[in-house]
Every structure is written in structure tokens, then in C-alpha cells.
Amino acid sequence: MSFKSPLTLQELVENSLLRKKTVAISNLDNIPSFFFPSLFRNACRKEKISIVKAMVQVWPFSCLPLGAMIKRNDSYRRILEIILFGLDSVLCQKVPHRRCRLQVLDLRIMPLRMWDEWSVFKAPDWSKNQAAVGHSETEVKPHVKVAIDLVLKNRPLKSLESFVVEWVAQREGLCLCCKKLEIWSLATYYHKNVLKIMDLNSIQHLDLYNMNDLTCLLNISPYLGHMRYLQSLLLSNLSRWACHTPVEKQQVVTQFTSQFVKLKHLKSLILENVFFLEDHLDQLFWCLKTPLETLSVTDCSQTQTRPTWLNSHAQAS
């Protein structure tokens, strides 16, 4: 015969608090910090809306990794709305609650087991820049950063992502952070409202796909130059532009490659089928001011047998 393990003292306390929301909310100042993750998870699971909203306002850690806790379904959307509206109260306070330490609302998808590691409740290193910088180079010091990884294509964002972006855009004291960003074709123009509110300093990994028109590179170039902490860049399937003159091509290549001067933290560069750069790789690599740790060049139609740029990057893999 098997017996169910008795509840721990913490579980008994949590169950009692979840049954009595008034008692729970009035005692949030006194609940030990190490109770918060488990209590918060259970409050979300049981949809204790008032308790969840109140806990956000006194969250004692610098990061709330919500994306690791709940799968992206209808219940996630409901809990997310509750949390965001709870943050509204935090943003409206001239003097934040003495216990609230929230700096980053992390909506990136992570395994649920991450909530068992205390490190996940610390603000990520990449989010600790003192100021957020957008395309306009205007620096702001947001109260809370909302972190999410995005894939921008020539179509609207998914419902949940669109909701988050719109919510951030409508409020002061917030900025949208994106450690990993993927952009396809003309999506830069299609989603310029997203890029306008995004903290470009937060982007560390950028993937560009199918930039098969001159306009694509012209649109992305200004943003690229403002991604000052970019570490990894992938360019894939950037075809030849047969309909443009050599002069036009040179102008676009120059505008694009000149942005690399500003990428002082770039460590990895992967070029796959980037035909528009054929015979212009020297120009790109002369703009790099720091050595690369990883370099991969595939099908870029370089006509030189021993390109000069390879001399300075011969140790790259």
C-alpha cells in the first residue's frame, strides 16, 4: 500500500493563503521572499486574480520570468493580462513599494524547471544597460523592461505578441527588449512600429533572411548601426539584384557595411548565400573594428582565390 506524502509546512501555508485572499494580500509585506515563486505559480494556476495582481506590485526579485512558467495558450494570455495591468499600478506610483524590485518582465520561452533555479529571478546581464536606446538614439531609463524574442515577417505578429507590443507602446516607463531578433525580407518596413519602441541595445543575436530587394537593406541598415551590443549576426539568402545598376548596388553595400564600424561587440558573423556582397567582402571586413571569434562564409561568390580580408581573420572558424 502506498501513502501520499504529507504536505510540507510551506505548502500548508500557501494553501491557506490562497483560500483567504484578503489575508494573503494584507500579509504580502511579511511573507519571506523565498515563498514568492511557489506561491505565485500556484496563484496563477488556480487563477487567484487579486493575489496575482497584488504580488506583482511587491515582487521582491529583479526579474519575473513569466515565459518560463506557463505555456503560450489562452490561460497564459489571461494571466499575462492580469500581470500587465498589475504593473500599471507600479508604473503610476511616484514612489514604488518599498519591497518591489522588479526590473525585467521576461516573456521569453524557457523550460518550466527554470523556476527551480534562483538565478532565473535575477535581471539578465544584457538587460542591465543604464539606458535604453531606440532608433532615434533617444536614451531613457525605463522602470521595467519587457523581454521577448521576436520573429518579424511580412505579416502581423501573433495575437499574444501583438498585445504585448501594443501594451508597451501605450505606456511610459517601459521598453521592449529583444535579446534574439529574426527579420525576414521587408518585415523591417512592415513592423517599423515594433522596432521604434524596441531597445536596440538589448539585441545580441540578429538573423536576417531573404533580403532580396534593395529596399530591404536600406531599411535595416539604420537599425543595425544602433545595435551596439550585437554579438552574433547571420545573413542568409541575400540574392543578386539584377534590376539595379552597379552604382546603386555600391551605394547600398556602402551604407550597409558602414554600420559594422559601430558593432564593437560582434563576435560571430555567418554569411550564407549572400550574393549581393560578391567582391565586396573586403569592404565589409575593413569596417570591423574588433576580431571575430567565429566566421563562416558560404556561397558568396568571392572571385579572389586568396581574399585579403582572410589574412586578418585567418584564425576564425
Automatic annotation (TrEMBL):
Keyword entries, A-Z: Leucine-rich repeat, Repeat
Family matches, as PANTHER family: PREFERENTIALLY EXPRESSED ANTIGEN IN MELANOMA-LIKE PROTEIN 1 (PTHR14224:SF6), SIMILAR TO PREFERENTIALLY EXPRESSED ANTIGEN IN MELANOMA-LIKE 3 (PTHR14224)
Q: Does the keyword Ion transport apply?
A: no
User: InterPro entries from the entry?
Assistant: LRR_dom_sf (IPR032675), LRRC14/PRAME (IPR050694)
Its protein name is PRAME family member 12
Cellular component aspect of the GO annotation? cytoplasm
